[in-house]
Write a structure and sequence with these properties.
The chain is of the alpha/beta class and 336 residues long. The protein has one domain: Alpha/Beta hydrolase fold, catalytic domain (Rossmann fold, 3-Layer(aba) Sandwich), CATH 3.40.50. Helix content is 37%, strand content 14%. The chain has helices spanning 2-13, 90-94, 97-101, 137-152, 167-178, 198-210, 216-220, 226-230, 237-243, 275-298, 316-334, and strands at 41-48, 53-60, 75-78, 107-111, 160-165, 183-189, 246-250, 304-307. Strands 1-2-4-3-5-6-7-8 form an eight-stranded mixed β-sheet, sandwiched between helices. α1 runs parallel beside α6 (198-210). Residues 1-22 form the signal peptide. Its main location: secreted. It is found in: Secreted.
Length: 336
């Protein structure tokens, strides 16, 4: 039974239509920015000493009124999915997130890249695909990038929000668990929140091979390595509760969104998500989301919004809808 379940989960995670986990392989957008013209979207090249390379970051200033005092602004970090591209963030390609946060008073930060990384610090470079460097995304997101943004863009290194989807939903929660001063708000949209569960760990390994040929052994080691539990939100729920982090956890059983979000201008039509496959992925994710809710409440947590709508699937339309829904809560939290 365990082997059959693992095979089923792995098959769902590796379906070709998995653009919801970050984009189709080989599809390269041609537009400079996918939101409407005139937005102050910048393309930053930020050197990462830990990875020994430059990381592209899409950035939008907080949009303060002319003449307003220049003070460090808070920010929302939007993390990408399993098939994250190296040229643009999936949030920019597939949603109008920059439009939604324009003029909000907080900056928008979209790190680009990180395919199959789970935005964590790996043990070593992936040997399956001969990766030339070791992923050190947690270090970049919580040390190197905040220092750059504070020095160059007047963005506060503390009191910010982080939102992730699918692969990065759990990563957002884990970043808040270990870096609570930086991230006082964390949102997980359709996240897989129990990666150390045996069947899920095996499915993740297969999915990472499919998405770029990455070897999970180089990430968190074999399934019994403590790193799997260290990066598991269900296992770290007490830490999250103790931090007092404000959470938004969203997942749905599958099915069309009630109010579909139109694609961003110039979004590639090949980025469409197959409804049946995306529904299966969402059905897979919801179990770990409800388990996280159960453990969160058992741990005494009282600072989270859990939303499990009747409609919505593993797609950018659903994630865009949820990002707009959580935006007022996020802004109110980081501006306290």
């Amino acid at each position: 039974m365990s082997r059959r379940l693992t095979a089923t989960v792995a098959a769902v995670l590796t379906l070709p239509a998995l653009v919801a986990l970050g984009g189709l392989p080989g599809v390269t957008p041609t537009a400079g920015a996918f939101s409407h013209d005139g937005l102050p979207v910048e393309y930053l090249s930020v050197y990462s000493p830990s990875m020994g390379r430059n990381i592209q970051v899409q950035f939008q200033s907080p949009g303060l009124a002319s003449g307003a005092p220049t003070v460090p602004s808070k920010a929302v970090y939007l993390l990408d999915g399993l098939r994250a591209q190296d040229d643009y963030s999936g949030w920019d390609v597939n949603t109008a997130a920059f439009d939604w946060f324009f003029g909000s008073g907080i900056a928008t930060v979209m790190p680009v890249g990180g395919q199959s990384s789970f935005y964590s610090d790996w043990y070593s470079p992936s040997n399956f695909n001969k990766q030339p460097y070791t992923y050190k995304w947690e270090t970049f997101l919580t040390s190197e990038l905040p220092q750059f943004l504070a020095a160059n863009k007047q963005v506060s290194p503390t009191g910010n929000g982080v939102v992730g989807l699918s692969m990065s939903g759990g990563a957002a929660l884990i970043l808040s668990a270990y870096h609570p001063a930086q991230f006082v708000y964390a949102g997980s949209l359709s996240g897989f929140l129990n990666p150390s569960a045996p069947d899920m760990a095996q499915a993740i390994r297969v999915a990472m091979i499919d998405a770029g040929g990455y070897n999970a052994d180089n990430m968190w080691g074999p399934p019994w390595d403590p790193a799997w539990k260290r990066n598991d939100p269900v296992r770290q729920v007490q830490t999250i509760v103790n931090n007092g982090t404000r959470l938004w956890i969203s997942c749905a059983p599958g099915g069309p969104t009630s109010d579909p979000v139109p694609p961003a201008p110039d979004a590639d039509p090949n980025q469409a998500v197959d409804g049946a496959n995306s529904g299966a992925l969402e059905a897979l994710a919801i179990g770990s989301n409800k388990l996280f809710q159960e453990r969160y409440l058992q741990a005494g947590g009282k600072n989270a919004t859990f939303t499990f709508p009747a409609s919505g699937d593993h797609s950018w339309a659903y994630w865009g809808e949820q990002l707009q829904a959580l935006k007022p809560d996020l802004i109110a939290t980081v501006n306290r």
